[in-house]
């Protein structure tokens, strides 16, 4: 979404807010949510009631002092103290209930986003295929800001309405001129805030959130790739990238500050005028003795309360514009997640639809045409083959020829193209990439991932480590329960062997190996392939090592122009 597309405070933003907010109040948690919300409104009413009482008593004891009436003064202070004792817990309870509801809402909304992020492998598609900036920041920060700010502003607007009703009567009874003046003043200032500052600040805050997230993402990338960067001596380059990314944060924030400065000029002029204006308007009545001084104090209090109710947008403009930005970011994200969930399965402009997958005991491909996800390149045209159990397939071809892409199709990650893939269930086909994924967790978890809940004895796990030639690993790292940053403490070859142990333990029917033994010496590679054969696991390998040829029956050559050749492994010579 570009900055030009950002709406200001308009009906579209309100609709977007409702789209994101409403599902929680229709969810299973709706009764609890409604209960907490109702309690919050009651507490808010209580707060306003106490505000009115405080305002009344302030006027009362000021008038008593002005009249030098000690009895009237002390009895007013007594009432004031009682109001205080009753009011303080209501104020505290209000914030507690508001933030509890906010926290529960955040928990629900985070789960709602995570569910959709994981559905149809959205986390993969969005990052590798569609490309949306910083989904992590949207889930972690924007959801938090959204729920907190939604309640904050809803309550502020509701509070403003209640105050408006509560204090209008007081002010009307003191001075009708003040009421008319007040309405005109509030209308003009709100109009200026919404039209002059609104669109600008929402757009700038949107950009700010995006740039902050980019900066953090670049820092995380630096940490994750620290070793490669150090080997390359890429410090200066990385530093200059980080400086450039931060520069974008800095420059945008400068623009935010400039607009905030203008807004503050406007807000403070607006605020300080309201201190003096009511006194100026009713000064004549007090000086002529028509109004008590205390009544003038009450009028000023009521004036301030009503004005802040009427100008709630002006007063909270900065926060409101940040809130608008996070609504936009969440809406954009939510929209893409929903689109991903309902991707059309029909024909596209190029006349090619989607690859269909059907369950089968034996892996087979029929008339498979593969395109890159955005359909810009045709990688494979009308490939047909079968991989019967025990008859491994070796995929070869030049770099960029589409070897990994074919594995992605077999694993169900890509489906752009046409034709049919018949394949066993997910658990029966395991994928081993060149750089294995080693999740956070102990050594046991590395072996059992992703089904870490399986109960397998330590002795058996150690046996599998032994079989992939890592006999001393557990002892070296401090046992199967040791938790380390595995990608850092293990060599790539050790990581590949560990991932192999994971695959052997899972005993799938097929294993897809994408240069999964590239870092191993010939002896270790041979050992691993023998283990596969021993367990009747059929390999589908992408490999540049001729030595693995003998563990496969067929060789598929993908030159990268869409054509392909399939030959028997026996007698095949690497070109
Ligand atoms: N997500 C993507 N979007 C667009 N094009 C892609 C995407 N992923 C890969 N490609 C392109 O598809 C082509 C095939 O990529 P693939 O990874 O399958 O090649 P490969 O044969 O495995 O290469 P290598 O041997 O270098 O690993 C390449 O030109 C690559 O740039």
From TrEMBL:
<dbReference type="InterPro" id="IPR003439">
    <property type="entry name" value="ABC_transporter-like_ATP-bd"/>
</dbReference>
<dbReference type="GO" id="GO:0005886">
    <property type="term" value="C:plasma membrane"/>
</dbReference>
<dbReference type="InterPro" id="IPR003593">
    <property type="entry name" value="AAA+_ATPase"/>
</dbReference>
<dbReference type="InterPro" id="IPR017871">
    <property type="entry name" value="ABC_transporter-like_CS"/>
</dbReference>
<dbReference type="Pfam" id="PF00005">
    <property type="entry name" value="ABC_tran"/>
</dbReference>
<keyword id="KW-1133">Transmembrane helix</keyword>
<keyword id="KW-1003">Cell membrane</keyword>
<dbReference type="Pfam" id="PF06472">
    <property type="entry name" value="ABC_membrane_2"/>
</dbReference>
<feature type="transmembrane region" description="Helical">
    <location>
        <begin position="33"/>
        <end position="54"/>
    </location>
</feature>
<feature type="transmembrane region" description="Helical">
    <location>
        <begin position="178"/>
        <end position="202"/>
    </location>
</feature>
<dbReference type="GO" id="GO:0016887">
    <property type="term" value="F:ATP hydrolysis activity"/>
</dbReference>
<dbReference type="GO" id="GO:0140359">
    <property type="term" value="F:ABC-type transporter activity"/>
</dbReference>
<keyword id="KW-0067">ATP-binding</keyword>
<feature type="domain" description="ABC transporter">
    <location>
        <begin position="363"/>
        <end position="569"/>
    </location>
</feature>
<keyword id="KW-0547">Nucleotide-binding</keyword>
<feature type="transmembrane region" description="Helical">
    <location>
        <begin position="80"/>
        <end position="97"/>
    </location>
</feature>
<protein>
    <submittedName>
        <fullName>ABC transporter domain protein</fullName>
    </submittedName>
</protein>
<dbReference type="GO" id="GO:0005524">
    <property type="term" value="F:ATP binding"/>
</dbReference>
<dbReference type="InterPro" id="IPR011527">
    <property type="entry name" value="ABC1_TM_dom"/>
</dbReference>
<dbReference type="InterPro" id="IPR036640">
    <property type="entry name" value="ABC1_TM_sf"/>
</dbReference>
<feature type="transmembrane region" description="Helical">
    <location>
        <begin position="151"/>
        <end position="172"/>
    </location>
</feature>
<feature type="domain" description="ABC transmembrane type-1">
    <location>
        <begin position="38"/>
        <end position="322"/>
    </location>
</feature>
<keyword id="KW-0472">Membrane</keyword>
<dbReference type="InterPro" id="IPR050835">
    <property type="entry name" value="ABC_transporter_sub-D"/>
</dbReference>
<dbReference type="InterPro" id="IPR027417">
    <property type="entry name" value="P-loop_NTPase"/>
</dbReference>
<keyword id="KW-0812">Transmembrane</keyword>
<keyword id="KW-0813">Transport</keyword>
């Amino acid at each position: 979404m570009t900055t030009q597309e950002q709406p200001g405070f308009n009906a579209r933003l309100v609709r977007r807010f409702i789209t994101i907010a409403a599902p929680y109040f229709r969810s299973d948690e709706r009764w609890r949510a409604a209960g907490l919300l109702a309690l919050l409104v009651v507490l808010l009413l209580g707060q306003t009631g106490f505000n009115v009482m405080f305002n009344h008593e302030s006027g009362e004891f000021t008038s008593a002092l002005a009249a030098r009436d000690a009895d009237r003064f002390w009895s007013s202070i007594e009432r004031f103290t009682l109001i205080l004792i009753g009011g303080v817990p209501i104020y505290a309870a209000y914030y507690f209930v508001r933030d509890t509801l906010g926290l529960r809402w955040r928990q629900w909304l985070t789960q709602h986003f995570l569910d959709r992020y994981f559905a149809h492998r959205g986390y993969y598609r969005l990052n590798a295929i569609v490309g949306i900036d910083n989904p992590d920041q949207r889930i972690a920060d924007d959801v938090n800001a959204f729920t907190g700010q939604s309640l904050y502003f809803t309550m502020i607007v509701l509070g403003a309405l209640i105050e408006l009703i509560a204090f209008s009567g007081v002010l009307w009874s003191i001075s009708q001129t003040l009421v008319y003046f007040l309405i005109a003043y509030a209308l003009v200032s709100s109009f200026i805030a919404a039209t002059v500052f609104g669109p600008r600040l929402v757009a700038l805050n949107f950009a700010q959130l995006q740039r902050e997230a980019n900066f953090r993402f670049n820092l995380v990338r630096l940490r994750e790739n620290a070793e490669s960067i150090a080997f390359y001596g890429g410090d200066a380059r990385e530093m200059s990238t980080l400086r450039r990314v931060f520069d974008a944060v800095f420059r945008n924030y400068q623009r935010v500050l400039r607009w905030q400065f203008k807004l503050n000029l406007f807000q403070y002029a607006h605020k300080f005028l309201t201190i003096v204006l009511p006194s100026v308007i009713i000064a004549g009545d007090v000086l002529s003795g028509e109004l008590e001084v205390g009544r003038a104090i009450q009028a000023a209090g009521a004036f301030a309360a009503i004005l802040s109710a009427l100008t709630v947008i002006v007063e909270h403009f900065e926060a409101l514009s940040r809130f608008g930005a996070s609504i936009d970011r969440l809406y954009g994200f939510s929209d893409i997640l929903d689109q991903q969930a309902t991707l059309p399965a029909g024909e596209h402009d190029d006349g090619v639809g989607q690859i269909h997958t059907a369950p089968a005991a034996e892996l087979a491909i029929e008339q498979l045409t593969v395109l890159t996800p955005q359909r810009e390149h045709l990688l494979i045209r009308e490939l047909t083959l079968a991989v019967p159990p025990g008859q491994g397939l070796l995929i070869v071809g030049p770099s960029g020829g589409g070897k990994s892409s074919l594995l992605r199709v077999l694993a169900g990650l890509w489906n752009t193209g046409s034709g049919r893939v018949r394949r066993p269930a997910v658990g029966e086909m395991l994928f081993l990439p060149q750089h294995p994924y080693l999740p956070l967790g102990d050594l046991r978890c590395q072996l059992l991932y992703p089904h870490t809940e399986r109960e397998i004895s330590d002795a058996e796990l150690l046996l599998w480590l032994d079989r992939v030639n890592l006999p001393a690993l557990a002892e070296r790292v401090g046992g199967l329960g040791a938790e380390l940053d595995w990608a850092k403490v293990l060599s790539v070859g050790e990581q590949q062997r560990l991932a192999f142990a994971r695959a052997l333990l899972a005993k799938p029917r097929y294993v897809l190996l994408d240069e999964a033994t590239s870092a191993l010496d010939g002896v270790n590679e041979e050992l691993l392939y023998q283990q596969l054969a021993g367990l009747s696991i059929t390999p589908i390998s992408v490999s540049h090592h001729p030595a693995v040829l003998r563990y496969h029956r067929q060789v598929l050559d993908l030159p990268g122009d869409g054509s392909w050749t399939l030959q028997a492994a026996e007698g095949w010579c690497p070109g």
